[in-house]
Amino acid sequence: MSTLMEDDIKRWTAKRKTALVLDIIQGKTTISEASRAFDLNPSEVEQWVDEGKRGMENALRTKPLEIKEQYEKQLRELQQAYGEAMLELRARKKLASLLGNEDEK
């Protein structure tokens, strides 16, 4: 079997698992109905649902304002570092031009 075929199977399995977990969470089916319909072990399906819920909880715990503050802080630090670098570059150019003019005298 080729690796391309195996990748297709993995993607299909992940999609199917996700769809099944969402159906269970939304109440469209139950764990026992899903396990009977797809010939799966109920504990395995329950584990999938628990993993899905944990993933959703982690996504909800992320606080956008905290992330925004982190990015803004990094941006300010980068702007400050850029400003300092530009000042240093100008000072070096000025120094070089002054030293160049002294050599001409």
Distance between the termini: 81 Å
Estimate the mean pLDDT confidence.
Answer: 81
Tell me the strand percentage band: under 5%
The helical percent reads over 70%
What does the radius of gyration come to? 30 Å
Total strands: 0
> Counting H and I runs of at least 4 residues, what is the number of helices?
4
Class inferred from helices and paired strands:
mainly alpha
Which regions have little confidence, pLDDT < 50, spanning 5+ residues? none
Give the ordered list of helices and strands. HHHH
**What general outline do the C-alpha atoms trace?**
rod-shaped
Largest sheet: none
Describe this structure in words.
With 105 residues, the protein is mainly alpha-helical. Helix content is 87%, strand content 0%. It contains four helices and no strands. The chain has helices at residues 3-25, 31-37, 42-61, 64-104. Helix 1 crosses helix 3. The longest helix has 41 residues, at 64-104. The termini are far apart. The model has no long low-confidence stretch (mean pLDDT 81).
